[in-house]
Amino acid sequence: MGPPQAVQKVRDNYYLVQVLVSESPSADWRRLFYETQQDVTPDFPTRSVEITGSLLRFRSDPATVQEKVGRIDRWLERANRKTRPWPIALKSSGGIVKIWPAKLRK
Description:
Elements: E1 5-11, E2 14-20, H1 27-35, E3 50-52, E4 55-60, H2 65-83
Antiparallel strand pairs: 1-2, 2-4, 3-4
Helix pairs in contact: 1-2
């Protein structure tokens, strides 16, 4: 998974954020991503992540983006495990991005 990028300001201190994944997931993989997760919270359900091609998009404030990226990384890994023995649809970096774009720190 690539580093998060703020692509649009939704409102004051709240942004549309996107991350790039290694390839566009299949419909079956998307279903697993949305429906088989265990660590879902009411304030950030899986359906709050939009999958378009090889981009994952979600809304966040700068303070919680790292937590959300970490959660998405775990969801990616779980969906990948569920798709085996077929080829893994997406490869996770296995780590959490630790730098938020400087323009959003203001």
